[in-house]
Amino acid sequence: MIAATRRWFRRNRTNFVIGAGVVGAGYLAGQYVLAKVSEARQRMSDERIARENLRRRFEQNQEDCTFTVLAILPTATENIIQELPVEQTLNELQKQKAERLARSVGASEAASDFPSAPTSVADDDGKSLKSFQSESYVHASQVADKSGGDGDSSSLASQPRPKKSKAQLWNEMKITSITRAFTLIYTLSLLTLLTRIQLNLLGRRNYLASVVSLASPPSQSSRISLENRDDDNFENAYGNDFETNRKYLSFSWWLLHRGCKDIMAKVTAAVEEVFGSLNPREDITLERLSELTLEVRKRVEGSTEEDRRTNKWLTYLLPPADQEDYVLTESGMASPSTTPTPTPSLRRLLDETSDLIDSPSFTHVLTHLLDAAFSLLIDTKMATTAFKIPPVSASTARVVEITGANEAKAKVANTLAVFCRQAHVIGSGEQNEYLAAMENVRELEAFAAVVYSSNFEFEAPEAGEVNAMGSGVGAETAETVETAESTRPGTADTAVGGDVAGGEASLVGAESGFESAWGKALAKEDGKDV
């Protein structure tokens, strides 16, 4: 029996070997597949976590942009209001009215019975002045002037002005009221875009610095070193040092103190040309006011698509190269006794910011922001306040169409009162409706997302050295590019390219990688429900 069993095993040993081999190979193959599945699951989990982390960083960055704009906007508002003191002109008109009443009915009667003065001596602009008193309010910078001119003699509002006629004062108030509101809209729009560019560039660099820090090999020694290695620090290589960031953000000083005044000069010329012949006493329709506003915008931004695309806003947002030291000094980033020189990291940030501002995409987004702000001012605030048109909703749209609300008329002086009041709302640093309207523009989010996720592969000047150390930062960065580009609906599918200069991509021209990514971002936005 045993001998027969042995003979059977010898006859079938080849089959046993083959079977064992098949079973072993199957087992190994199964283990390999299970390992790959586990690895794929782990990678998907890591990518999901990284994607959510990047999304959270991006969303927090946009909230920081909003708070930053609200914090620094009042600085520009103060400068513009001081240059265009509408309230001072209103005070002079009121004084002239009081003087005329005093001459007509006697000084004693004017002092004791001023509210009941005869209608025969009341001025035609009495209702207009009352509308300014009720519908507008005096800014803090004008309090000193209204209290008797005891304020700082160096301020523009407290300086004595030559005597002007009533017609001259009304014309001056017309121009300054409209100019102030329009200038603040342009300033708010440009400040919003500049802040988005600055904080998203820094946010992108901070994110990459954290990736480098995590991917770098741990120190071989636990000893504390007192040697200064800042020049070799990976975070500084990415421009993540605190001092560079502070200096870079301080360049918004130029828009707040110089650029807004340059914009004001351009807007003033356009307003004088368009609204100059308008009589404050005459009636105007909302449609006519919208047309005049559009004419002003054409003169400031450009009348055609080509004009708007070639219109450069860089001079309003950033100083020329020979004024950069002056800005750093005035903003408190350098002492007057020294001559600050931008570091290479700061230089790269400023150059990339300039390229973004000069890109056609910047003008495209700016136009949409201005559309939203002017629509809120004219179609909503002006319509409901000056023209007494009820807010248009789904239930009232047909009623407005039938009653011809677009043909409703109002005195030009009444619209000036609304312009005066809305200027303070536009420049407010708290609960700003106009900033909220701009942030609802989808192109702004797409623009911020493209800025945040572009140029990942060009950010690290020391990437070659890091890879040579075996840390795998190159692979991590490449994965980060894919992750970043899929975090927001407005991001691109591929990383942007460009000419590499000093470790940075140059974003110049309509055919640059940024413009390609921007086009894909808009294509994605058009394909989703808004």
From TrEMBL:
<dbReference type="InterPro" id="IPR006966">
    <property type="entry name" value="Peroxin-3"/>
</dbReference>
<feature type="transmembrane region" description="Helical">
    <location>
        <begin position="16"/>
        <end position="35"/>
    </location>
</feature>
<protein>
    <recommendedName>
        <fullName>Peroxin-3</fullName>
    </recommendedName>
</protein>
<dbReference type="GO" id="GO:0005778">
    <property type="term" value="C:peroxisomal membrane"/>
</dbReference>
<feature type="region of interest" description="Disordered">
    <location>
        <begin position="140"/>
        <end position="165"/>
    </location>
</feature>
<keyword id="KW-0812">Transmembrane</keyword>
<keyword id="KW-1133">Transmembrane helix</keyword>
<dbReference type="GO" id="GO:0030674">
    <property type="term" value="F:protein-macromolecule adaptor activity"/>
</dbReference>
<dbReference type="Pfam" id="PF04882">
    <property type="entry name" value="Peroxin-3"/>
</dbReference>
<keyword id="KW-0472">Membrane</keyword>
<dbReference type="GO" id="GO:0045046">
    <property type="term" value="P:protein import into peroxisome membrane"/>
</dbReference>
